[in-house]
Specification:
Glutathione binds at residues 93, 125-128. This protein has helices at 61-73, 111-118, 144-153, 172-186, 188-193, 198-218, 232-248, 263-273, 284-294; strands at 26-27, 44-45, 52-56, 80-83, 130-133, 139-141. It is α/β, with parallel strands linked by helices and 315 residues long. It has a domain at 18-158: Glutaredoxin (3-Layer(aba) Sandwich), CATH 3.40.30.10. The strands form two sheets. It has a four-stranded mixed beta sheet with strand order 4-3-5-6. Strands 1-2 form a two-stranded parallel sheet. Strand 5 (130-133) and strand 6 form a beta hairpin. Helix 4 (172-186) crosses helix 6 (198-218), helix 4 (172-186) runs parallel beside helix 7 and helix 7 (232-248) packs across helix 8. The protein is globular, with a radius of gyration of 19 Å.
C-alpha cells in the first residue's frame, strides 16, 4: 500500500475515512446563557451579533459553503470572517494573510492555538470552517454540515430582508440528496484522491461518477436540484463542482470526464457561479495552490498547473 497523505484517516484497506468533528457546540436563540456567557448545560451558545468569528480557507470546499451562506443571508455584520493562508505548514492553518501573521481579532497565528486552547489534548487534524468565540477564544464548532444549517435557522433575526429560504419546510428530499451527494461526491473526490489501494480508489471512482450521472439526469428538466428554488443542497454540490476540473479531475484522479463534458451539470454550475454570493467567493489561485502544494504525497514536485482558464465560468 502506498504512503497515505493523512495516515490516521487511512484504513488498512486503503480507504480514506474522514475524521469526525471534534467541536459540536451550537449557537442558538434557545440557549439559556446570558449575553457574554459560555454555553448552557445543553451546549448551546447565545446568539450575539459581533461576538463570533468564522474562520475559513477560500481553498476548502467545506469552508466555502459557509462563506456563500453567510453572504446570501446577509450575515456579514453579525458574524465576522477570518481567512487563513491556503498553504498549511506542519502546524496547520496559518493567519499569514494578515499583517504580522496574526488574526487581528483573535490574536493568534495558527488556528491550532484556538483548538488546543479549547482541548489541550486534541491530536487530530485542525480543520476549517471553525467558529471561534471572540470573548473566550474557544472553538464553538468545527461541525461544518451543521454550521450552514444553523446560519439559516438560528440566526434568522439577523438575516437581510430579502434573504433566500435555503431550507425548505419539507426537508426529507433535500436531506436525502445531501446524504447521497456527501458520500459519493463531496467526500467521494477525497476518497478517490486519498485512497492508498487500487481497489479503494476504483470503488470511490465508480460511486462518484454513478452519482454525477444521476445528477446530470436530474438536472435535465430543472434549474436547481429541488426544482426552481435554490437550496442548501445546491450550495453543497456547487463547492465541489467548482473545484472539479481545476483540482479533482487531475490531482485526485477523478478523470472519467471533466465537468465541462457533462452538459446539464456544467450549465447548472455556471448558473450558480454567476449568481451573487457564488462566483465572487471563488478564488481559483488559492484553491489550486492549496491542493497542489500541501498534498505532497500526491504531488511531490509541488508544481501548480496554470489551467484551466477560469473565464469559462463566465460564459
Amino acid at each position: 500500500m502506498t504512503r497515505a497523505q493523512f495516515a490516521k484517516e487511512s484504513a488498512s484497506t486503503g480507504e480514506w475515512k474522514r475524521q469526525g468533528n471534534r467541536f459540536t457546540g451550537r449557537i442558538s436563540p434557545e440557549s439559556a446563557s446570558v449575553s457574554g456567557a459560555g454555553p448552557d448545560e445543553d451546549g448551546l451558545w447565545p446568539v450575539e451579533p459581533g461576538r463570533y468569528r468564522l474562520v475559513v480557507s477560500l481553498a476548502c470546499p467545506w469552508a466555502h459553503r459557509s462563506v456563500i451562506v453567510r453572504k446570501l443571508l446577509g450575515l456579514e455584520d453579525a458574524i465576522s470572517l477570518a481567512i487563513v493562508d491556503p498553504i498549511r505548514d506542519e502546524q496547520g492553518w496559518r493567519f499569514t494573510l494578515d499583517p504580522g501573521g496574526q488574526d487581528p481579532v483573535l490574536g493568534i497565528s495558527y488556528l491550532s492555538e484556538a483548538y488546543l486552547g479549547t482541548d489541550p489534548e486534541y491530536a487530530g487534524r485542525v480543520t476549517v470552517p471553525a467558529i471561534v468565540d471572540t470573548v473566550t477564544g474557544l472553538v464553538v464548532t468545527n461541525d461544518y454540515p451543521q454550521i450552514t444549517l444553523d446560519l439559516s435557522t438560528e440566526w434568522k433575526a439577523f438575516h437581510k430582508p430579502d434573504a433566500p429560504q435555503l431550507i425548505p419546510a419539507e426537508r426529507a428530499e433535500m436531506d436525502a440528496l445531501i446524504a447521497d451527494i456527501y458520500t459519493d461526491v463531496n467526500n467521494g473526490v477525497y476518497r478517490c484522491g486519498f485512497a492508498t489501494s487500487q481497489e479503494a480508489y476504483e470503488q470511490a471512482y465508480d460511486a462518484l461518477f454513478a452519482r454525477l450521472d444521476e445528477l446530470e439526469q436530474r438536472l435535465a428538466d430543472r434549474e436547481y436540484l429541488l426544482g426552481d428554488t435554490l437550496s442548501e443542497v445546491d450550495i453543497r454540490l456547487f463547492t465541489t463542482l467548482v473545484r472539479f476540473d481545476a483540482v479533482y479531475h487531475g490531482h485526485f484522479k477523478c478523470n472519467r470526464v471533466k465537468l465541462t463534458e457533462l452538459p446539464n451539470l456544467w450549465a447548472y454550475a455556471r448558473r450558480l457561479y454567476q449568481l451573487p454570493g457564488f462566483g465572487e467567493t471563488v478564488d481559483f489561485d488559492q484553491i489550486k495552490r492549496h491542493y497542489y502544494l500541501t498534498h505532497d504525497q500526491i504531488n511531490p514536485t509541488g508544481i501548480v498547473p496554470k489551467g484551466p482558464d477560469p473565464r469559462v465560468w463566465e460564459s
